[in-house]
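Intended use. Records such as the Helix-turn-helix domain-containing protein entry shown here are meant for training and evaluating sequence-to-structure methods. They are not intended to support clinical decisions.
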Amino acid sequence: MATTPRRALADLLAKRKAHLGLGLEDLAARCVDPMHPGDGPQWTRSTLSNLLSGRMVKLTGPSAVRALAAGFDLPLDAVQQAAAEQYFDWKPIGLEDDLVALVAHWDEMNDLEKAQLRRIAQAFAEERRKHGPGE
């Protein structure tokens, strides 16, 4: 049975490229990690072309994802979620306005398991709001 290729990141970036009206060369030049601007662009035109066409390219780490977010002028969390979905088959599940969980094997879960996971994540979020992070 053939599997459908995951394209969450490719689709997000292709849509944003069309909205920005920029070419791949210009986008590649903008793909600089804001935490390490001295490192320069993290993506080449040809690698961006491969990524946007749905080919799997190597994500070298968080710096590459931050650089994509900066280059395409997108929120970092949106790029992180799309990358997690495309590269790791983790599904971002919106639980509340400020809570998103990245879940592996979501599509394999039945409705009861999905409801249980939502309750666990919501309980965690409520405790974190009450007590703050790390407490």
